[in-house]
Design brief:
This protein is of the alpha+beta class. The protein is built from 11 helices and 17 strands. The strands form 3 sheets. Strands 1, 3, 4, 5, 6, 7, 8, 9, 10, 11, 14, 15 and 17 form a 13-stranded mixed β-sheet that branches. Strand 10 (about 180-185) and strand 11 (about 190-200) form a beta hairpin. Helix 2 (about 15-50) runs antiparallel to helix 7 and helix 7 (about 285-325) runs parallel beside helix 10 (about 375-400).
C-alpha cells in the first residue's frame, strides 16, 4: 500500500520526476565508467609492476640494416648482449608468420589477409620470437608439453628442420602436443612441431612503444625462437626493428647505465651494414596508458560528482518544498490512523523508486554498450553506491517529516 502511495505521489509530478531520473542516469553512468577506469588504471599499474618492477628498460634500435651486413660481427655482438653480467638483453620479436590454413583458422588471424602460393593458402598469424633470457626473466606456464631447451633457441636455417614452437591456450582446442603446422617465408617453407601448449591467459610484454601491443595475451599466439627464421638477415633485421629490451636493475647508477649503453651503440656502429644504431629509453612509454587513464578518470570523476551533487541538492530542495505543500494531506493521513513514520516511509519510497528507475535505465545503457563484457562486480558496486546516495538524499527530508507538529497537521495549520 505504501508503494502505491509513493507511485501516486511521483505521478503527480511526472515531468519533474522524469527529468530527475534522466539526470541521475547520466550521473550513475559516469560513476560506472569511473569504476571501470579505476580498475583499468590498477590493471595497467599491475602490468608495469609485474614486468618492470625494480627495472629500468631501454631498447636497441637502428635506422637501417643492409643485406651486406657482417654476419659474424653481428652474431658476436648479440652473443655479447645476451651474456652481459651488467644487464639483461631480452628478445620478444613480434614478427608475423604465414601459417597454412586449417579448420577454424579465422580465430587466429592477425589480419584478414591470405596469401596463396603453389596452390596452398596461408593466413597471417600472431607470433612472438623469444630468446633464452626472455624465459629466464618472464617464465611461461605450460598446460601440456614443455618449453624450449637450450639447443632450440639457436638459429638453424635448414629447410628440412622441424621448428619447435609453443602455442597459446586457444590453439589447444584444435591441436595437441606433437602436431605440426606448416609455415611459409618468401623463399622457404617449414614444418613447426608443437612441443607445448600454454596455460590460459598468459601475459607478456609486447612492443612497449605501441599502445595496442604494450602487453599481450598469448592465447592466440605462437611462441618461437631464432630457429623460426629462414636466413640470418631476417634474424638480425627483426631483432633490431621489432622488439628487444635491455633491462638494468633500478639500483644501477645512471653513470654505469650510460656507460653500458654507449658501449652497445659503439659496438653496433662498428658493424658494416648497420646504420645509426641508438638506444631508446622506454620509461615514458610505460606511463603513457596510466597517464591517459588518470586524466580520463579525473574528467569523469568531476563530471559524475558534480551531476550527483547538483541533482541531489535540487531533489532535496524540491522534497522539502513538497513536504510544506502536502501538510494538509499529511494531516488527513494521520486522522485516518497513519503516523509520521508511515509518511516518512512513503517519502523514502518515492526517493528509492526514482533512484532505482535511474539505476535500471543506467544498467540498460551499460548493457547496450558492453553486452556480454559487462562487469558484474562493477554493477554491484554501482548498486551499493546508488543505495548509499539515496539514503543520504533522504536524511534531511525525513528529519523534516519527523519534526512536523502532529497537532498542527490535524488542525490544518501551516
Amino acid at each position: 500500500m505504501k508503494i502505491k502511495y509513493a507511485i501516486k505521489g511521483l505521478s503527480r509530478r511526472f515531468f519533474y520526476s522524469f527529468l530527475i531520473i534522466l539526470q541521475l542516469t547520466f550521473g550513475f553512468y559516469s560513476i560506472y565508467e569511473n569504476i571501470n577506469l579505476n580498475k583499468s588504471i590498477n590493471a595497467e599499474t599491475s602490468k608495469v609492476e609485474r614486468f618492470f618492477k625494480d627495472k629500468l628498460a631501454y631498447s636497441l634500435e637502428v635506422d637501417h640494416v643492409s643485406k651486406n651486413i657482417n654476419f659474424s660481427s653481428m652474431e658476436k655482438a648479440f652473443n655479447k648482449l645476451e651474456n652481459s653480467p651488467d644487464y639483461t638483453f631480452l628478445k620478444n620479436v613480434l614478427v608475423t608468420l604465414y601459417v597454412k590454413v586449417f579448420d577454424n583458422y579465422n580465430e587466429f588471424e592477425r589480419v584478414r589477409q591470405k596469401w596463396t602460393i603453389d596452390n596452398e593458402t596461408y593466413f597471417i598469424a600472431n607470433n612472438m620470437t623469444i630468446n633464452k633470457e626472455y624465459l629466464n626473466t618472464y617464465p611461461l606456464e605450460v598446460k601440456e608439453g614443455r618449453l624450449f631447451n637450450d639447443n632450440e633457441f639457436k638459429f638453424v636455417g635448414k629447410e628440412n628442420y622441424k621448428i619447435p614452437i609453443v602455442v597459446g591456450a586457444n590453439y589447444g582446442k584444435y591441436f595437441k602436443v606433437g602436431d605440426e603446422l606448416d609455415i611459409r617465408w618468401l623463399k622457404s617453407k617449414f614444418k613447426c612441431k608443437i612441443i607445448g601448449i600454454l596455460e590460459k591467459d598468459q601475459l607478456s610484454p609486447g612492443d612497449i612503444r605501441e599502445p595496442d601491443k604494450r602487453y599481450i595475451n598469448l592465447n592466440n599466439y605462437i611462441i618461437s625462437t631464432d630457429s623460426i627464421y629462414d636466413d640470418r638477415f631476417s634474424l638480425y633485421l627483426y631483432s633490431l626493428f621489432n622488439g628487444n629490451y635491455i633491462l638494468f636493475d633500478k639500483g644501477t647508477s645512471q653513470v654505469e647505465i650510460d656507460k653500458n649503453l654507449k658501449n652497445i651503440e659503439e659496438m653496433f656502429n662498428n658493424i658494416k651494414g648497420v646504420s645509426y644504431p641508438g638506444i631508446r629509453d622506454l620509461s615514458s612509454y610505460m606511463k603513457q596508458d596510466t597517464e591517459v587513464l588518470e586524466e580520463q578518470r579525473r574528467i569523469v570523476s568531476v563530471t559524475s560528482i558534480t551531476i550527483i551533487i547538483f541533482v541531489c541538492a535540487t531533489f532535496i530542495i524540491s522534497l522539502l518544498e513538497a513536504i510544506n505543500k502536502r501538510k494538509f494531506e499529511y494531516g488527513i493521513h494521520i486522522m485516518s490512523g497513519g503516523t509520521l513514520c508511515d509518511i516518512a516511509i512513503i517519502s523514502y519510497l518515492e526517493i528509492f523508486i526514482l533512484f532505482l528507475s535511474s539505476y535500471a535505465l543506467t544498467f540498460t545503457l551499460i548493457y547496450r554498450k558492453y553486452g556480454a563484457l559487462i562487469n558484474i562486480d562493477n554493477i554491484i558496486i554501482l548498486f551499493i553506491i546508488m543505495m548509499f546516495i539515496s539514503i543520504i538524499s533522504a536524511i534531511i527530508p525525513l528529519i523534516k517529516i519527523f519534526n512536523l507538529d502532529i497537532d498542527h497537521l490535524i488542525k490544518g495549520e501551516e
